[in-house]
Amino acid sequence: MAGNKSYTIVEYFGGDDGYRCGYCKNEKGNFSHGMWSHTMTVQDYQDLIDRGWRRSGKYVYKPIMNKTCCPQYTIRCHAVKFQPSKSHKKILKKMSKFISKGELPTGQDDGEPMDSVCEEAGPREPSKVSHAEVKCPVVTDIQKEVAECPAITEVQKEVADALPTGSEMPRKDPVSVPDGRTTATPPKPGMGADPSRPPCRKAKDLRKERRIQKEQMRQHADGVSSIVSPTPSTPTQTNQPKNLEDFINESLPDNSSHCLEVRLVRSNPPSPQFKASFDASYQVYKLYQMAIHKDPPDKPSESQFRRFLCDSPLEAEYSPDGPEVGYGSFHQQYWLDGRIVAVGVIDILPTCVSSVYLYYHPEFASMSLGSYSALREIAFTRHLQKQSPKLSYYYLGFYIHSCPKMRYKGQYRPSDLLCPETYVWVPIERCLPQLENSRYARFSQDPDAGDARALKDVGRALVLYRRAVMPYAAYSRKRKSSSDETEVQQYAGLVGQDCAERILLYRA
Predict the structure, then answer these.
(1) Are strands 425-427 and 260-268 parallel, antiparallel or unpaired?
(2) What whole-number distance in Å separates Cα of residue 118 and Cα of residue 22?
């Protein structure tokens, strides 16, 4: 991934104590394994989230699925194959209408709560470990170099194209009759299939014709002689459904009431653009937490904001076959008329874009920004996939079927849920019947299937001990009185044999 070898360094904390659930509010019902990551490669994190882990700041946790009150299943969407549903189209049209005409819907759309940051399961104070402390002794054959993060020379800035106004054909209401049935009536003058009127045409075709007419007028104004005639659509073209980009990129009138711009800024290490917009971003977060999550004014502190939404263990990495912006942690900022109104926290990983969190200004609570930002992030994933073919998935965090308000994530199809026992991906359609019967379910239908990356030899797990990297077998010989084999074995089993042989487990 990077040009030279880089390590992941973690401290494992176990998962014996229950803590408050952010979904059902059970004070002691949420259980998870946790570890503090001092630094982490994007490939290691990709492998960890494919085993049910997820980060909140530098804290990485894995729900204990058969024990926790609200089992949280990792969910991913096949971004390349995604087609917006009817409700998704309505959300895009609602945003388009607001931008073009300035009409802000009334009320609050609370049907799409964001994942709660794992604050209640906050880690113990971690030991002070840095890359500079890592050195490799003779007992290992591990490479001796430790990678430094490459300098960030570019930050991608995406300008959102105007959205369509969403014009629709008027709905024809049936005529009521006394017995409650509906019946057709002869058309009144000027209504119905009047042969003296031109035939009805699709709004899409009318918009295309208007664009061509405008282009002709512009060319004539520039002194260019050109005749452009609309090309009749073939049946396949007419019936071809719009894709996500069509809805997002369709032009808006020049006299739109608002201007929406989406900017991607790297949060770790913080880019100049991230630093310049930090205060404005934090203020939006503070208002969001107070209005949406009812936090007291002193709780959404700047240190909390930095800890959970700005700090990240992921190193900035670049690859010849990767996206131009590189891998790592970013904020996707939504700027409306020159001010930040929403921020999506995301990670760009080798095979996916992973959604971490979204917060927005409460003034726009009626705009369904949770769903809108997810649609934009899916489109962004598809954009990156054109640069890096293997980057084709969009991870929405956790799907929680036992929490009805969190089921909206299952509407982004096609999507898969991660089996909590075999760590294979299963289409969500096959999983839902099982979740209707039980909060916890094994999705793999093969009763003999197991974890293909299960721990085989704890002695091969890497540890960082006294600033030296060594296999656990060598460490245990040095610490003959050590009694932590059970803990190390549990940790290695949770991360899998492959990760255990790459990630450095810190031992004091």
Answers:
(1) unpaired
(2) 8
- CA atoms within 13 A of residue 394's CA, in its CB half-sphere: 27
Q: For 104-120, write each residue's pLDDT tens digit.
A: 887 666 445 556 444 54
Pick the residue with more confidence: 240 or 184? 240
Q: 231's torsion region: left (phi>0), alpha (psi -120 to 50) or beta?
A: beta
Instruction: Give Cβ neighbours of residue 495 (< 8 Å, ≥ 6 apart).
Output: 47, 48, 51, 53, 503
Backbone φ and ψ for 107, nearest 5 degrees, come out as 85, 180
Hey, what are 380's tokens? 């962004």
- With tokens 């119905």, the residue in question is 192
Q: Give CA–CA dist 343/373, Å, rounded.
A: 9
Which element (helix H / strand E) includes 55?
strand 54-56
Phi, psi of 76 (to 5 degrees): -135, 150
Angstrom distance (rounded) from CA 408 to CA 396: 10
pLDDT of residue 212: 61
Sheet holding 9-14, edge to edge: 54-56, 59-63, 32-39, 9-14, 504-507, 462-465, 468-471
Question: No. of H helices and E strands in the chain?
Answer: 13, 18
Residue linked to tokens 């802000």 = 104
Distance CA(494)–CA(486), nearest Å, equals 12
Query: Shortest CA distance to 491 belongs to which of 53, 172, 7?
Result: 53
* Residue 113 amino acid letter: P
Distance CA 465, CA 479 (A): 10
Q: Which tokens sit at 116?
A: 């709660």
The SS3 call for residue 33 is: strand
End-to-end Cα separation, the chain, in angstroms:
29
